Amino acid sequence: MKRVATIAVVCCLLGVAGCQRLGIGSQRQYAAPLPATPTTPVAGGQLQPLEPLPGTVTGEPLSGQPLDGAPGTEVAAAGPLPEPTDAREIGRNDMLGGWKLASGADNCMLFMTLTTWTGGYRANTRGCSDPALAGISAWDLNGKLVVLKGAAGDQVAQLYASGGDRFSGQTATGRAISFSR
């Protein structure tokens, strides 16, 4: 009996010691905050104008449609995208899942499902800074052409399969756009 009582007392003491070791029932201690690091001020000034790249065409804009709403930056209005000779047949199931979307400076994700939605099937994007790309809400197939649409059913982009799991085309403002796995 004495031995059982001794074992019970030892177990209780070890349990209490273990709780103290794990910090149970004691105040948490946090590391001291790091001191602020001094930085140098940022200098301002005028940038030199960019030289056009070899092979680029300069001159008057093709239409009066502004690019991203910035005055003085205009591009040609996007019409129907001509079908490339190497465009391949695709099915709705080929489009499902996540895609890496790229257009201009944007590199974000595009997700497509078979849930019916205004103007086609449900789609959404993540991480797009361009408001038009961030507003993609639907997609649809028109023959070999994939059409990405906004919430109001407006066309955001048109793309054709350009080999493997890659699609290339243009946005409604005429910029190049592509998505791939």
From TrEMBL:
Cellular localisation: Cell outer membrane
Start and end residues of each Alkaline proteinase inhibitor/ Outer membrane lipoprotein Omp19 domain: 91-181
Single GO MF descriptor: endopeptidase inhibitor activity
Gene3D superfamilies named in the record: 2.40.128.10
Region (Disordered): 36-90
Endpoints of the signal sequence: none
Record keywords, A-Z: Cell outer membrane, Lipoprotein, Membrane, Palmitate, Signal
Protein name in the entry: Bacterial outer membrane lipoprotein omp19
Annotated organism of origin: Polymorphum gilvum (strain LMG 25793 / CGMCC 1.9160 / SL003B-26A1)
